[in-house]
Each structure stands twice: as structure tokens, then as C-alpha cells.
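User: Hey, quick favor. My workstation is busy. Could you predict this chain's structure for me?
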Amino acid sequence: MKKEMMRLSAGMVFICAVLMMTGCDDSSSNDEDTDDVCVPEIPAGAGAIGESCMQLEDCASGFCSVNAHTPTDPTGTCQAAPPLGDVHVLANVRDFMTDELMPGVQIKIGGALDISQNPTGYPVTDTLVSDANGYIDTVLTGASVELALGIMAVAEADGYYPTVTGLVKPEAGCGVYPAGIRNPDLKVMKESDLSALSDMLLAFDPTLETKLPLGDKGGVVGLIRHVVTGEMVAGAQIRSTSVTSNASTISTKPATPSPPTSVAAAASSSYSPPAWPKNSTPTSTTNWSPENPPPSAKPSACC
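Assistant: No problem, here it is.
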């Protein structure tokens, strides 16, 4: 299962992502008066070109061609990486509530620091558009891979709240990005869905009026989906595992069978996910109500 949480900031919806600057740790010592040379460490494994993979570390080239994590893309293979420092973006754009693929969504690329400080006036380094099937396939170069703290994607579409997703940080060290992104699942959320959640929260607890509506006043919304199928999971519980961080575990009711741990296991097992509702909305078969709100309707901390 995967927890999808969105932090809402004034004028913008933020997909939670922790983007931290990763420097180059040069632990060697040299008595000579010479400049230190920083060497990036690109994540790489043993997978040859064409072999199946699920993440960058699976491949000797450092690049795995997966375009989705939830639901898991079963077609990922190791492919040649772009030039050092450039970032190959393979991603999907989906409606946050229905999980439907969204074609024609404009994706603006910007820096984590710039967007956090000025979410409506940040410098845009690249502009992408999801294709007819709702996917993105492009290579970022130039100013986009010179962003210091992390690369973020701002999704915009008519009738949808602007949504920000953290793509990747310069984790290779020396300010260098890996060959691909870490989060290929870009989300957009309908303004009507966000408004419906605000109404439900107000009905659930009228004292929250000063903190609503969601988005304009901030907040957190979230969904839990099956990592292989992408279906929403009913009855799941999020439990904190630490009092000093946002670490948590996700569990389902005891009667729910354990899902397979990989795409290969799913293909070879007889496991069938529960009949979780598809394309649910805040008022559909999930039976959300002021008396029975979804997990996201209760104030929580994220990121």
C-alpha cells in the first residue's frame, strides 16, 4: 500500500515530498594546496540494458524506465541514461480522487526553494504537457538541473487546483541529479472535490471554520491506494511509529489478505485484492459522512 498525502498551502496543493540538499562528502585529506574535486555518485546496480527493473538502483546505467509507482508499472526496463546531470522524466498525470489518467495537463518545472517561498511567482525553468494518454516523457537539461534543493512539478488544468509534486533531489552529490526522477506519480485535484472535502470538514467540526476552505487556508488531504493495482483501500489505518518524526506504518483490517510484494509475485500468485471502490468521490460508495469521515478529514501533520 502507498500513502498519498497532499499538503495544502495558500493558492497551491503540495504533494508531500522531503527535498533536502545532498552535498558531496569528501572525507579524504590532502596537505597540498589544491582544490578538492567533487565526484558525483550515481545510483547503479547490475541490471543490463533491456532487463526488467523497478527503480534506478536496479540498473548498471542508473536509469530505469518506469513511468508509475502506484499502480506499479510492470514494463520498466533498464535503459541508457542521459548525459551526466540531465534528468529523464517518465511520469503519469492522474486525478487525485479517481486515479484517471489526465491528458493535456500543463506541467511547469521549478525549484523546491523558489516554489515554497513564492508558489505563484516562482521562476519556471521548463514547461511540459502530458500526452494524449496522460504520460510525460522528456529529458530536463540546463536551468532545470541546476536547481539547488530539488526539482518540483506544478500541474495546472482548468477546473483543477494547482498541484505541486516533488520529483527528485540532487542526491548524487555535488549538486548533481540522478538519471531519472524518484516520484513519477503526478496528481491534480478538482476544485469541486477540494470544496466538497471542506464542506464535509465543516459539518464534522464547525470549529474548523476559521481554517477552511482547504487550499486557501492550507491543510492536508490523503488517500491510501494498493501499490500494485492502484485501487483505494477501505479500512486502512495509519499508525505513527515515532514521536520525533513523521514515520508511520499502514495496515488493513486483520481479515484482509496480504498483497504480493512485487509485480512478479502478483503475476504468479492467486491473491485477489478486495473489491475496493473505483473512481470514488467524497459522496460515493466509500460512505464518507460527518459521522464517518475519511482519514484525510482529520487534521494531521505531514512532511
